[in-house]
Structure formats: structure tokens, C-alpha cells
Design goal:
globular; about 425 residues; single chain; about 40% helix; about 10% strand
Length: about 425
């Protein structure tokens, strides 16, 4: 554009036809004079470029002390040391006796070579850029099942994926998640009880903020060993972490006697226990709880009025065929008489055969919550950051891709719940 004042502006005016020149000169004279005056009042152009005087900055002694006490080990000193080693290698240092750093502190399958499933990526491409469907040769670039799935989603989501979705996530995706749960458990599931999240971790954090009241008097029963998402979140919320040891000799099962003892000790200290976290299949132990042990957990929570938080993101990572995965919802629904239990179950696209840690996806399902609490949850739930349908098809079999898009990933290593 024109420069105010100087030869550049005058040159542009001289090159314009006379009919166009007269009016711009008259219009720009006043702003030019005003700008020069303002520049003079502020000490000239140099004064306008001077930085603001330094202001007070936060120090470690002034930030939230709970942030200082929180620890997130999988992203702590070990990761920082690995980053430093990679910098040395990039600089050509001869002090590093190897050529590659393989980061195994966290389950990040595609970072260590697992190929993404082509079907999911093709559907995503068509969802993000629907105009591709109208391009010549689209049938040669995309598999027929991917095109059909993308058209199905686009018909159900006329505003596209660039617009905000419902708070719980796109209805069609929640319906397909419900179908996935029904196929897995052989029991009905409702999309009204399902909330889509950008990874299971966000769902865990949101439910903890709903359940825990702050003030330092609440507690949460958490398994040891555990993934540090829970211990770090509890530290930030001034909540007591009531750790219970798993029984390694009994296949990392959950001794109810230890839960009772931990609960009694917390009560003696004035701590109100609010919920029980069960990671099943376990992280990092790899255990899959026996059916009878799960029944005991449900009875324990119902007896003491605790919310059961079932972290089930590793349900595809089963190493022992003799210890199959059962969802807590399935076990609850098969109990007779059925106890009154508040249950929330979490799942993620980051683990198993999908391994989509960067393209976030997950959900939680609630069972047995008070309708007024449900209404409040729905009102405040922020919704998924990126609500792209891809991960939980209508049935397990429909998750497979066609021959053009198939890949053969392996279940990811254990680590965070997405």
C-alpha cells in the first residue's frame, strides 16, 4: 500500500490518472499532518519503537504451590535427558555411542514405527476437505468403503467438522460408539450417556473436577503402580491420593481387604473418599482383572457410595488369553441383584491397534448418575477439542479397511490413557 509522506507516496500519486489523483491527495493530507503531529508528540518514530519498561514476572515462589508439588514422571527428567542427547547427536557429537534414541517412556506407537490405519486417514481427508469427493479420479485415490463412510458422516454433519459440534460430540459418532459398546458387551448402550473427548485423559480430568470438591479434605483411591496422570491431577486439585497396592503374586489383582483398610485409615484422618480408580487392563502391570474380583470392586463401591472410575483404554492390549477383558459395565449389568453404582468408563483411540496419539479421540460413558448431576455435566462439559469421527465404528469388524488402505499395526505399548 502507499507510504504516508515521502517520495514513494508522491510517485504513486504522479502515476495515477488526473481524475483519480485529486481526491486521494485531498483525503490524505489531513491524516498525514495528524500522523506527523502524533509522531512529534511521542518523541518521533524512535520513541514509538521503544519497548515497554520491564514489568514484574512470576517466580516459582509465586505460582500455585500445587503446580510445584505435582509430578508427571513420563515427561520428567528422563525425557529431558533424552532430548539433550538428541541435540548432541544432531550437533555431530562424538560423545554419544549410538545413532538413535528410542523413547519408550510413553506409549506412542506411531513414533516408533507403527503405521496408521489407512481407512481412518482416508475418511479424515475426505471429511476435512469434502471437495475431494467431487474431483475426477477420486475413486482411484480413496477406497470405496472410505468414500462411503465419509459421505455418511457428511450427510449427518451438514455444517462440517470445522464448526462446533454438540457438547457431547457429534450424534452420529456417539451412536456408533454406543453400537461398539453394545457389540462388545452384548448389552444395550445409549448415545445420551456417551461423551466424546479429545483423548481419555481429558475425560478423566473433567470427571475428577466434577467429583472432587477441593479444599484438601477429599481423597481418591488409586492403584499402585499407576500412571501418573492421577497423582499429578490430584496434586493440582489438593486431593489426597489414597494409594492401594495391587497383589503381584495373585496376577496383580485388587485385594478388597486393602481397599477397606485404606478407606478406614482415610476416615480416621478426616479424609472423605470420593471414588475408586481401577485401571483395567492395568498400566503398567498389564493385568486383566478376574471377573469375580471385578464383582468385589463393584460391591465395595456400592457399599461405600463411591464413584467407580474404570480406565479401560487398554482393552485391546490383552497378553494372557486365559485372562480376557471384561468391562465393568458388563459385569455390573450381569449382577443379580444389581447394586446401585455410579460408574464412568473411559476409552481412547491412542492405544490398541489404532495408536492415534496425535489425532486425539476418546469417550467416557456414565451409568447410574443422578439426573440432575447429568444435566449439570452436560451444561459444563466443554466438548471434544477435535471431534473427527474415525475410531469407534458400528461394530468391531467394520473397523477393518479395504485392501487399498489396510495396514497391519500391532497393539501399542502401555502408557498414558490417551
Amino acid at each position: 500500500g502507499p507510504t504516508w509522506g515521502g517520495a514513494g507516496f508522491e510517485m504513486r500519486q504522479a502515476l495515477r490518472p488526473a481524475a483519480q489523483t485529486a481526491r486521494p491527495v485531498a483525503q490524505t493530507a489531513r491524516p498525514l499532518a495528524l500522523r506527523r503531529r502524533l509522531s512529534t508528540l511521542h518523541g518521533g518514530a524512535d520513541a514509538l519503537r521503544k519497548p515497554y519498561p520491564p514489568s514484574h514476572v512470576l517466580t516459582l515462589g509465586e505460582i500455585n504451590p500445587n503446580v510445584l508439588s505435582a509430578q508427571y514422571a513420563v515427561r520428567g527428567e528422563l525425557v529431558q535427558r533424552a532430548a539433550a542427547i538428541k541435540e548432541e547427536m544432531a550437533a555431530g557429537s562424538a560423545n554419544v555411542p549410538f545413532k538413535k534414541v528410542l523413547e519408550c517412556n510413553i506409549g506412542n506407537p506411531q513414533a516408533v514405527g507403527q503405521s496408521p490405519i489407512g481407512f481412518n486417514r482416508q475418511v479424515l481427508s475426505l471429511m476435512v476437505c469434502p471437495a475431494l469427493l467431487d474431483q475426477p479420479g477420486v475413486d482411484a485415490l480413496f477406497a470405496p468403503d472410505a468414500i462411503a463412510r465419509a459421505k455418511e458422516y457428511l450427510a449427518a454433519i451438514p455444517s462440517g467438522v470445522g464448526a462446533y459440534s454438540d457438547s457431547q460430540g457429534f450424534r452420529i459418532v456417539r451412536e456408533q460408539v454406543a453400537d461398539f459398546i453394545s457389540s462388545r458387551d452384548g448389552l444395550p448402550a445409549s448415545p445420551e450417556d456417551i461423551f466424546l473427548t479429545d483423548g481419555a485423559s481429558k475425560g478423566v480430568g473433567f470427571l475428577l473436577s466434577l467429583i472432587l470438591r477441593g479444599g484438601g479434605s477429599d481423597g481418591l483411591l488409586v492403584p499402585i503402580p499407576q500412571y501418573p496422570l492421577y497423582s499429578a491431577t490430584l496434586a493440582l486439585q489438593e486431593t489426597h491420593m489414597l494409594g492401594y497396592e495391587l497383589d503381584e503374586a495373585a496376577g496383580w489383582s485388587l485385594p478388597i481387604s486393602l481397599l477397606e483398610a485404606e478407606l478406614e485409615d482415610a476416615q480416621a484422618k478426616g479424609v472423605a473418599t470420593r471414588a475408586l480408580v481401577v485401571i483395567n487392563p492395568g498400566n503398567p502391570t498389564g493385568n486383566s482383572l478376574p471377573y469375580d474380583n471385578m464383582v468385589e470392586c463393584i460391591d465395595f463401591c456400592a457399599k461405600h457410595g463411591l464413584v467407580l472410575m474404570a480406565d479401560e483404554v487398554y482393552q485391546e492390549n490383552i497378553w494372557d488369553g486365559g485372562r480376557p477383558f471384561h468391562s465393568f459395565k458388563k459385569v455390573l449389568m450381569e449382577m443379580s441383584p444389581r447394586p446401585n453404582l455410579q460408574l464412568v468408563s473411559f476409552h481412547s483411540t491412542s492405544k490398541g491397534f489404532l495408536g492415534e496419539c496425535g489425532l486425539r479421540g476418546g469417550y467416557f460413558e456414565i451409568v447410574g448418575f443422578d439426573p440432575e448431576v447429568n444435566a449439570r455435566l452436560l451444561e459444563l462439559f466443554p466438548g471434544p477439542f477435535l471431534d473427527l469421527p474415525r475410531a469407534f465404528p458400528r461394530s468391531r469388524r467394520s473397523c477393518s479397511s479395504s485392501s487399498r488402505s489396510a495396514s497391519a499395526p500391532t497393539p501399542s505399548a502401555r502408557s498414558p490413557p490417551g
